[in-house]
Design a protein that fits this description.
The complex is a heterodimer of chains A (522) and B (321). Chain A is an alpha/beta fold. In chain A, 32% of the residues lie in helices and 24% in strands. In chain A, helix 14 runs parallel beside helix 15. Chain B has one domain. The chains are: A alpha/beta (522), B mainly alpha (321). Chain B: InterPro entries: ABC_transp_permease.
């Protein structure tokens, strides 16, 4: 949409900033990259899009010298260049911002920036030089960061800036960003895109790896699509559409819009009245929340991360105590006492897909079949006798479940950490939905999940609703809230700012509510 | 308690704190780089034995010191091989080194000297002699400060002064040099160091080697300065106390000095007051001897507060995206 304004009009004769020719890389039997060739022109933002596991990160790791390609050549500005290690990549003017930041948490911004790029054996001169250089970079690119702040005290958005500054300080002309918006709030993502815009205007070349179609359409000049280790297409962004890209990524037509019938709400399933939560530091996180959800209805909670949505899920799921009233099926829940734990909640028919699947949803080193019963492992069906669990039975159930939920690979004996993000999420969703709950709590169901799996998980949630269950959906993705919810409540600063119907609102109005701008008009 | 007694106890504190301090700084370098080292004890013991043996045979305490450093470094590199190159478990490697040293020292000592697993007593130049600092004798008569200078500050061996000089040196290296920045980084987040194009393996080996050198000096001090010769198990848990001091010190050099001086003081007090008569009830000597160890546990359990170890400590670095 906005691409036209940015083209620098590079002549076609200019050498590409980066050219990869015939790159192949295998990890054991898995061919992660197959004969990949790509040309990235200088002064452009080149998107690389593909599902999780398509080989995008492998390709970029080869370019950054983290892996050695089995075959193929790399050209930087027309010069054939060998990149055996990260040092060589840095020397060639390549900087990389990894998905998981490579920062030393208890160092200052300045120390992180100079690490590995110090000028001499003593630190003082390097630090002074970097301080000056950061000031220049801040004015040049709008990258303001307090150089003396300690990394663990600043937010992820700031940390990402530090990563970008690290690359720029090393005079990178080519910047690779791997899934940069995965950890950012929408506002932080917008800021990042403004910075990238600025960098492009200054002539830097940017490779943006993502699986979010919206980002590709918003900021890139050219986009390459990867699927199963192969480069399936490279097109001008202006000449393509999200639908066409999605089809190239997945290899079949994908429904970007969720198909669903109008809700047929039944009796009230969940009633929350005047719910308060105060955290360990004494900060009030929920300031009198009241809401209700009927059977057969999805209530979406929109909001910028950190405005109490997580606490709402956690108090409902029995992970933290609260005060106020919560009724499920007309019966009060215990919010502080003996029955305020996750197990008691599950016994009352409340299933919970937590926001952070790796920390709260799964035990990563455990196998898929073990993970498939956590929270329900005391169920009599899983006991062989007083002492032993019915492992064979659990294994068989897990096998069935994984096939039904299309978890790939469908091997229940693999540990959870060996599945991609989308498939991990399918394991969690399957576990919670399969127990046929009355109320399903879902937090960020598709965070870091690829597009094929998103479609699948959305369908499962709709199907559960159509069986007459109540669903509370918390997501920072407005698109997801808008397309799944039957009603939308917007949270800001521990309060509900208002409720809207998805057909009668738009992202702008919700955005204002999310920022706490609009008044309390229900 | 009169002034001179206090000075004597403090003097003894310095002597006893020296090996703890050296071992603690050794552990600091290693652990700051992300390599846990429970084998300080074994390295000190091996260094103590070899330095005493070489000092006895050659008649030179300095040659003994070099031999002690070499012995300790050999074990350090073994630990490095196991935990850096082969990515083994650092605790197990450290425990193995302790066992190896405990057995090997006695075995070789018996084979060489046939004195029941000890070395012959060292005398003359085979031992580090106390150094009298300038004007110590002349200033002794100055009230208060004179005895302080003469009894407490002057009259230690070269290794004591070296150990205390290591504290500011360690601080300076850690916080003022490029090497120190990278060393601290590699113990916190080796991936950050790796992606910055610096060798994680190289840094960690450097740290382990420095650890070996300092442990070597500590061991040599025990056998050729504090005492006159090697005896079986002469480190007596000092390596572990140094580790406790390291945690107490939150992996910082100046705190390490205070922590080891505290442990040294406990040992000095225990040495001086062997049987305490509390009006009829006599506290037996064994209780006093056990006091430093008991207090180690109490301090670690109760007074450390929140000590955050280097985040990547104990984990071998495996490159990943």
């Amino acid at each position: 949409m906005s691409t036209a304004t940015h083209h620098k009009g590079q002549p076609d004769t200019a050498a590409p900033a980066i050219e990869l020719r015939g790159i192949s890389k295998a990890f054991g039997p898995v061919q992660a990259n197959k004969d990949i060739s790509i040309r990235v022109m200088p002064g452009t933002i080149h998107g690389i899009i593909g599902e999780n596991g398509a080989g995008k990160s492998t390709l970029m790791s080869i370019l950054y010298g983290f892996y050695k390609a089995d075959a193929g050549e790399i050209f930087i500005l027309g010069q054939k260049t060998a990149i055996p290690d990260s040092q060589a990549a840095i020397a060639a003017g390549i900087g990389m911002v990894f998905q998981h930041f490579k920062l030393v948490e208890n160092f200052t911004v300045l120390e992180n920036v100079i690490l590995g790029a110090e000028d001499g054996r003593l630190l003082r001169p390097s630090l002074a030089k970097a301080r000056k250089s950061l000031r220049n970079l801040a004015t040049e690119y709008g990258l303001d960061v307090d150089p003396d702040a300690v990394i663990q005290d600043i937010g992820v958005g700031m940390q990402q800036r530090v990563e970008i500054l690290k690359a720029l300080y090393r005079q990178a002309d080519i910047l690779i960003l791997d899934e940069p918006t995965g950890v950012l709030t929408p506002a932080e993502a917008d800021q990042l895109f403004r910075i990238l815009d600025r960098l492009r205007a200054e002539g830097k070349t940017i490779i943006l790896i993502t699986h979010k179609l919206r980002e590709i359409m918003e900021i890139t000049d050219t986009v390459s699509v990867m699927r199963r280790g192969e480069m399936t297409a490279t097109v001008k962004t202006a000449d393509t559409s999200p639908e066409a890209l999605a089809e190239l990524m997945v290899g079949r037509k994908v429904l970007l819009q969720v198909e669903k019938q109008p809700a047929r709400p039944g009796a009230t399933m969940l009633e929350v009245e005047n719910l308060h939560v105060t955290d360990e530091k004494g900060v009030e996180r929920l300031k009198g929340i009241s809401l209700e959800i009927k059977a057969g209805e999805i209530l979406g909670i929109a909001g910028v991360a950190g405005n109490g949505q997580s606490e709402l899920l956690e108090v409902l799921g029995g992970m933290i105590p609260g005060t106020g009233t919560i009724r499920v099926n007309g019966q009060d829940l215990d919010l502080t006492g003996k029955h305020s734990d996750g197990r008691s909640r599950r016994a009352r028919g409340i299933a919970h897909v937590p926001e952070d699947r790796q920390r709260e949803g799964l035990i990563m080193p455990y196998t898929a079949w073990e993970n498939s019963v956590f929270g329900y492992h005391n169920d009599p069906a899983y006991q062989k006798n007083m002492l032993l669990m019915n492992n064979a039975g659990i294994l068989k159930d897990a096998d069935d479940m994984m096939n039904r939920f299309d978890v790939r690979p469908p091997n229940p004996r693999l540990s959870a950490k060996n599945f991609s993000g989308g498939n991990q999420q399918k394991i969690v969703v399957a576990r919670e939905i399969e127990r046929n709950p009355d109320l399903l709590l879902v937090g960020q169901p598709t965070r870091g999940v690829d597009i094929g799996a998103i479609e699948f998980i959305h369908k499962q949630i709709i199907a559960l609703r159509d069986q007459g269950k109540a669903i509370l959906l918390v997501s920072v993705e407005l698109d997801e809230i808008l397309s799944l919810s039957d009603r939308i409540a917007v949270m800001f600063d521990g309060q509900i700012m208002g409720e809207r119907l998805p057909g009668q609102t738009n992202p702008q109005e919700l955005g204002l509510l999310m920022a706490g701008v609009a008044g309390k008009a229900a | 308690m009169d002034y001179l007694t206090i000075l004597q106890i403090l003097d003894s504190t310095i002597r006893l704190a020296t090996p703890l301090l050296l071992a603690c700084l050794a552990g600091l370098f290693s652990e700051r780089a992300g390599i846990f080292d429970i084998g300080l004890e074994g390295k000190m013991l091996m260094a103590a034995f070899l330095s005493a043996a070489v000092a006895y045979v050659s008649g030179s305490a300095w040659l003994g010191l070099l031999a002690g450093i070499a012995a300790s470094m050999a074990l350090s590199i073994l630990h490095g091989l196991a935990s850096i190159t082969f990515r083994g478990n650092q605790l197990i490697s450290g425990v193995a080194i302790n066992f190896l040293a405990a057995g090997l020292t006695v075995l070789i000592a018996q084979d060489w000297f046939r004195q029941g697993g000890r070395t012959p007593s060292l005398a003359g130049n085979a031992r580090f002699e106390p150094i009298t600092l300038p004007f110590a004798e002349t200033l002794q008569s100055v009230p208060v400060l004179g005895p302080l200078y003469h009894d407490l500050i002057s009259g230690h061996t070269a290794l004591v002064y070296l150990a205390f000089a290591c504290v500011p040196a360690t601080w300076w290296v850690l916080y003022r040099t490029r090497f120190g920045l990278r060393l601290r980084a590699v113990g916190e987040n080796p991936a950050a160091v790796d992606t910055a194009g610096v060798s994680v393996v190289g840094l960690r080996y450097a740290a382990v080697v420095i650890c070996g050198i300092l442990c070597g000096i500590a061991g040599a001090y025990l056998a050729t300065a504090l005492q006159a010769g090697f005896v079986k198990d002469m480190t007596a848990g000092r390596g572990y106390i140094a580790l406790a001091a390291l945690i107490f010190a939150k992996w910082r050099p100046w705190y390490a000095l205070s922590a080891t001086l505290l442990f040294g003081l406990l040992q000095a007090v225990a040495l001086r007051y062997q049987n305490i008569d509390l009006g009829g009830v006599i506290i037996p000597v064994q209780v006093m001897d056990a006091l430093p160890y008991i207090l180690t546990v109490v301090i670690l359990a109760g007074f450390v507060g929140k000590a955050i170890p280097p985040r990547a400590g104990g984990e071998p670095y495996v490159k990943e995206r």
